[in-house]
Specification:
5 helices, TGF-b_C, two-stranded antiparallel sheet, alpha+beta, elongated, 39% helix, receptor tyrosine kinase binding, Cystine Knot Cytokines, subunit B, Cystine-knot_cytokine
């Protein structure tokens, strides 16, 4: 067994407790002097959560086919950006750029003109003479007929696969301007017909 008397230490006095409290306060003050871990502000968390909620709601509104088209378009944009040596493009463009593209896509079919050289026409003629080239540009969404809707449905159901068809009307010339005559670089005279558009429409 144990030899000698075993002394039990009494409860700490007020002096001891004050000294311990001072030591704990000093330790807490020393710990509080340490740099605190960076925390994200609640406002930033709320903004991040709201963006995630908007994106999730946007994705839930798409059908499976639309999601596949969106993913393939994003992959293609990323591949083009990487091949051109640029940086990664944003996943969702700004609303202002979307509105600008929407307005550009929905311009009506109309006649436009451009002054170009004969060599720029790509018809194999070498000449410095300039001509007024009129062309058709714009969309034809308002001219969609039952034929176009049915044709689009047949293509989506893969009833029509091999044929090269267009399931929507296209802005094309309905009539052509007068013939264009010019001299090439070797003083040879040429006349080109059906070069410039005179009237445009959705066909």
């Amino acid at each position: 067994m144990f030899s000698g008397n075993r002394d039990f230490s009494p409860l700490p006095s007020s002096r001891d407790s004050s000294s311990s409290s001072s030591s704990s306060s000093s330790s807490s003050s020393s710990s509080s002097s340490l740099p605190a871990a960076p925390r994200r502000s609640p406002r930033a968390l709320q903004r991040h959560g709201s963006l995630l909620a908007q994106y999730s709601a946007l994705l839930e509104s798409y059908t499976e086919g639309e999601l596949r088209q969106l993913i393939s378009a994003l992959v293609e944009r990323y591949r083009q950006a990487m091949n051109s040596g640029g940086h990664e493009l944003p996943l969702f463009p700004r609303a202002g750029s979307r509105r600008k593209r929407a307005r550009a896509r929905h311009k009506p079919c109309e006649l436009r003109e451009l002054e170009v050289s004969v060599s720029d026409l790509g018809l194999g003629y070498e000449s410095d003479e300039t001509v007024l080239f009129r062309y058709c540009s714009g969309t034809c969404d308002a001219a969609v007929r039952s034929y176009d809707l049915s044709l689009k449905s047949m293509r989506s159901r893969r009833k029509i696969r091999k044929e090269k068809i267009r399931a929507r009307p296209c802005c094309r010339p309905l009539a052509y301007d007068d013939d264009v005559s010019f001299l090439d670089s070797y003083n040879r005279y040429y006349t080109v017909n059906e070069l410039s558009a005179k009237e445009c429409g959705c066909v």
